[in-house]
C-alpha cells in the first residue's frame, strides 16, 4: 500500500516551490523554482533508494537496481515544470507517484527482476520556449539540433538556459537513452472533465492528441488612430482578430473528432491607444487524436488566412513551430492497466488524452501506458487545479502494481 | 522671413534626442529623452530672447514681453513627447515653428503690443499614461485630481513621474493659466492624407475630433488548451477578437461622418501556447468630429458587447478612460489664417482634424487656430513620418504672420 500521508506531504512541499499568490505555481523550465524543486526531488529519490543522475538536457533519472542489472528497465515518471501560474498536480503527481511506488517497494523489501527508473523530464511545458516536451524529445533522440537556438520571451536561448544550469548544450545528443526499456508508465491528472462526468476514478489512455503549433506574424501599417480613415487602414490587429475567430470556428467544425484550436498568445505593436497596430504576433495551438481532422483545420486555416491577407492588404507569415502526429498507446499496456484496475477494484474507463505528454515520445521507443485520475471541473494550467488525495493514491496504487507486474514478470521465466 | 536652414538644423538636433534605430524617436512623457529634449528647447528659447519658466505640471513657457506687458498674451506651441518609435514631426514642428517665429521677430527688431508666449505642453501623447494632453488639460484647469493616480505600464503614477522631474503633484492646480490669452495658435502636421491628395500646402483647421477611450477587461476561464473541448470554453481572447472586429465594423458604418475606431492595445493572460486565455485587456479609441456619430458607435459597442458576454459566458468590464467632446475652432481664427495664406500665396484649404491636439483644450479658453501642413502618405506615429522642409517653412511663415497680426493689432487702437 502506498502512503497517502506521504504523498500529501510531498505534494504540499513541492507546491511551496514557485508558489504564486492565488495558490498556484510558476516553475518555468530551467528557472530558479524548477531547479529548486529538482533538489527537493533528488532528496526524495535518494530516500527511496534511487541512484540519481542527470542527463545532458537535464532529465533527472533515479535508478533502482533489479536482480538482473542488465535486463531492460521499467520506467515511470512525468515532469515538474509548469505554465505561468499553473496548478499543483499537472506533472507533479506522476513524479511523486513514481517515487512513492519505489519507496513502497523499498519499505516492503521487494526486489524486482528488472531495474526500475524514475524520470523527471525537463521542460515539458511549452510556456518558456514555445515548444513542449523538450526533455522527452531529447531522451528519445527526437530533438532537432536547431531547438537549442529557440528563444524565450527574454531572448534567452534553450542552449543559454541549459548552460545557466551547468548543462552542456554541445552534448545534448547524449540525452538520447541508449539502453533497452521494457515499458514506460506515466500517471497524470486528466486535465479535462471526462472522468468526473463519468464518475470513474481511473482513466486508461488509449491515445494522445498531438498539437500543431503555429506562430502567425501579421504585418500591416502603424498609423495614427485618429487621422487615418477606416478605408485607408492596414490594421494588423483587426486581421489578427479574424484569425483568432477562424481558429475557433474551424476547430468547432471538427468537434465530433474532439479537435480543439486555441490562440493563446497575442502581441500587438506598438501596443498603445493612439496607434493602429502595425504588427501582431499570434500563437496558435491545434490538437486532435485524429491526424486527418487536425490537418483539415490547419489546411483550412491557411486557406482562409490567404483571403484575410488579400482583403486587408496585410502580410501574414505562418511559422509551423511543431506538427506532431497523434500517438496510439499499445493495446497490451491498456490490457495490463485494465486488469490491475479490476483487481484493485477501481472504477476505470479507457479514454484518449486531449493534452500532450512526455509519454507520447516514449511510445515510439517502448510499450507505454498512461494512467489518468480526475481533476476537479477539468480545470488545469490554473491555480484552481485540484485532484483529490484518494484519487492520487488510487492512481499511485495502479502505477505501483503496474511497475511490479512489468518489472517482476521475467522472474517467472 | 523664417529661416529654413535653422528650422532644419533644429529639427535634426531634436530628432537625435530619443532617436530609435529605424529613424524614429521614443520620447515618452517625463522620460529621459523628453526631459533632455526640453533642455535643448530651453536653450533655443533663450537664444530667441524668451524668458523661460516651467509650470506645475511641466509645461514649458517662454515669454517675449510686449509693449504693453499687461495686455493679453498671444500664445503658440505644441508638444515634443512622442509615441514609442514615433516620428520626428508630430508636435515638434509646432514647437520649433513657434520658436522660429519669435527668433525671426527678434532678428527683425519687431516689438509687438501684446506679449507673446511659446508653450511646450507636457504629456500630449497618451502612450505613457493612457490619457492624452495632460499638460494642456492642466493648463486649462481641466485635469481631474484623480489623474495624478493614473499609472503607466510599469505601475508608475503620473504623480511619481512628475516628482521624478522635481515637480510637485500637490501643486498641479497651479498649472491652470490664470492670465488672459488673446489667441492660441498651433502648427502641426496633418497626420492624414487629405492635404497631400488635394495638393494643398496649408490646412486651416475648422474642428478637432475628440476621442472616447475605453478599457475593456474580459474575464473568461483559463483552461488547458488541449483537454478542454470547444463547447466547454470561456475563451477571453476569442471574445476579445469579436470586440476588436465590432469596433472596426461600427466605425466603418459611420465612415460618412469621418468617425474612426481602433483597438490599439491587446494583452492576453497568461499568454502562452497551451492555456486558453482567461483574461484579456483591450484599449479602444473611438473618434469623430461629430459627437452624435461617436456616441452611436460607443452605444452600439456597449450593446453588442452585452451579447458577446451572454453568448460566451465571459464577463466584460468597460472603463471609460476619457470621453471628450469634439471642438469647433472659431470662424474668426479660420478667417485670419485664410487671409494670411492668400496674402502669402500658399495654397490652402479648410479641414477638420481627425487627431486630437492640445489646441482642443485651449479652444475653451481663447480663440484658437490650427495650421496643418502635409505629411507624406499621411503616415504619422511611425518612424516613416515625413514633412517637406518647404512645407514646414510655409507653415511657420503663416504662424509668424498670424502671431504678428494678432499681437500687433492693438497698436492701431
Structural write-up:
The structure is a homodimer of 413-residue chains. Chain A is an alpha/beta fold. The first copy, chain A, has 2 domains: 4-209 and 326-412, Aminopeptidase (3-Layer(aba) Sandwich), CATH 3.40.630; 210-323, Alpha-Beta Plaits (2-Layer Sandwich). Helices cover 34% and strands 22% of the residues of chain A. Chain A has helices spanning 4-15, 32-47, 92-107, 134-139, 158-164, 194-198, 236-253, 291-312, 331-344, 359-362, 389-408, and strands spanning 51-54, 60-64, 73-79, 116-121, 181-189, 202-208, 210-219, 260-269, 279-288, 315-323, 327-328, 348-353, 368-373. In chain A, the strands form 2 sheets. In chain A, strands 1, 2, 3, 4, 5, 6, 11, 12 and 13 form a 9-stranded mixed sheet that branches. In chain A, helix 7 (236-253) packs antiparallel against helix 8. The first copy, chain A, is globular and about 80 Å long. The mean pLDDT of chain A is 95. At the A-B interface, helix 7, strand 8 and strand 9 of A face helix 7, strand 8 and strand 9 of B.
